[in-house]
Design a protein that fits this description.
The chain is built from two helices and no strands. By secondary structure, it is an all-alpha fold.
């Protein structure tokens, strides 16, 4: 409370500005236990470096098999189901904008 000597912060371990350092200071030193406990893998390197990574080279939208028949019209679907030939209908997914 105001008016009392140390205002509720205690006389011995005084209220100092930033006693543990500012921000993430001491992550590899005096705050290591906290970082290892709550943020494992925070320090160090991971993976392979790829300089000047451009996303358009790796553009490859995927489609799941359960949605695959939605690309084909209902008429083609029923005709494929009724045909007794061993041939399987081929669906071109690249026309719909999928590549995988």
């Amino acid at each position: 409370k105001r008016g009392h000597v140390s205002a509720g912060h205690g006389r011995i371990g005084k209220h100092r500005c930033h006693p543990g350092g500012r921000g993430n200071a001491g992550g590899q030193h005096h705050h290591r236990i906290l970082f290892d406990k709550y943020h494992p893998g925070y320090f160090g390197k991971m993976g392979m470096r790829h300089f000047h990574y451009t996303k358009n080279k790796h553009y490859c939208p995927t489609i799941n098999l359960d949605i695959l028949w939605n690309l084909v019209s209902e008429q083609q679907r029923t005709s494929a189901a009724q045909s007794k030939s061993a041939k399987v209908p081929v669906i071109d997914v690249t026309k719909a904008g999928y590549f995988k």
